[in-house]
Amino acid sequence: MAVQNFSPALPASAVSPPHPMSHPGYGKRTVPDELPPRADNFALLPLRERYVAGFIERLPEGATMSVKALAKQIPLYGQQAVGSALTALSVAGHLRRVRCAVGEGDQVRWVFRTYWSRTPRGDAWWAAHLAPGSVNQEDCAPVAMAEAEPVEAAVAVPTQRPPEPERPAPAPVPVPTSPSSPSPPSPAYLALAGLGRVDARLALSAADCTAMEALAQRWFARGVDADYLTRALTAGLPAHVDSPLGLVRHRLTTKIPPALPTTPTPPPANTPTRRVMMECTQCGTPGRPEALPDGLCHPCREPAPTPGTPAEPADPASRPAERDVTTLVAGLRDLLKSP
């Protein structure tokens, strides 16, 4: 008699539901000039803030950043804990909440975004980055929706497919090629090649010029021209140069001029000015960046005592431990000051 094999059913997938995405133009916005990701990016943060920061870091651009949406996707903490973590991350310099005016005439409305930085930034950096002339105009382009509510349709994470069997590659079909004209040499290459004509002690070969072309190109990227580069490399030469390649490489590395701040290009005359305003991470009160240090307004940084409560004792050690956010903010500042 055949024995039936009652195999247990396969377990359901434990993959979390995809995080909801905001309408186009809203949600998470990653700032530029980020350092490469590392395992210890958020090592100085407390456990809760480190967990929330790692979750936000993995979210795609445009993901919904409201406290309610984040709390639904983070199983360990509720809305109040997530809100306190976002406040602490704002103090640590990782995020700022911003509202931006879009539209013209009577059709102006405010849209809301959360700028995220894996690298902790100071108040001066955030103020410069969120200045009206510095924010990308595309970030403040009008959008179709007037309210920043999350879209229910989310982007699912694609599952990994099994590798397909290898197939023999088809034989390449020869394509007739026509001889192409060589590209002209770069200004950096020409400047190095002309050193020997200015001073014979710095005569370089073609291979030497190619090897140091990238170093010379860094000088041009900082706004100097070929005459400046030539004068800097030929000034004060010794009576006899044993290795022109070594001397030029040393001067290209040690005498490179400092990078000067570039003047932002003014927008065209007909381009409307986009008004950008930072808001308090905790309560949403709008204000200028200098009025919101650490991304928080004054009442949120120094909570006022509720009526009927006794005054706090003068001794900091005897204060009650109820002011969780204030204590956490002070601890984060101390951690950021440590080497």
Distance between the termini: 75 Å
Query: Strands of the biggest beta sheet: in what spatial order?
Result: 1-3-2-4-5
Q: pLDDT below 50 for ≥5 consecutive residues: which ranges? A: 5-15, 141-163, 317-323
Strand segment tally: 5
Helix content: 25-40%
Strand content: 5-15%
Name the shape in a single word: elongated
The H-and-E topology, N to C, reads as EHHHEEHHHHHHHEEHH
Oligomeric state of the chains present here: single chain
**Major beta sheet summary:** 5 strands, mixed
Describe this structure in words.
The structure is a single chain. The model is unreliable at 5-15, 141-163 and 317-323 (pLDDT under 50). Among the domains are: 16-135 and 274-301 and 324-339, no CATH class; 187-254, no CATH class. 30% of the residues lie in helices and 8% in strands. The termini are far apart. By secondary structure, it is α+β, with helices and mostly antiparallel strands. The longest helix is centred in the C-terminal third of the chain and has 14 residues, at 324-337. A hairpin with a 6-residue loop joins strand 4 (276-279) and strand 5 (286-287). It has a 5-stranded mixed beta sheet. It has helices at residues 47-58, 67-73, 79-91, 123-129, 187-193, 195-198, 206-211, 213-221, 226-234, 244-254, 298-301, 324-337, and strands at residues 27-30, 95-102, 109-116, 276-279, 286-287. Helix 5 (187-193) crosses helix 8. It contains 12 helices and 5 strands. The protein is elongated, with a radius of gyration of 29 Å.
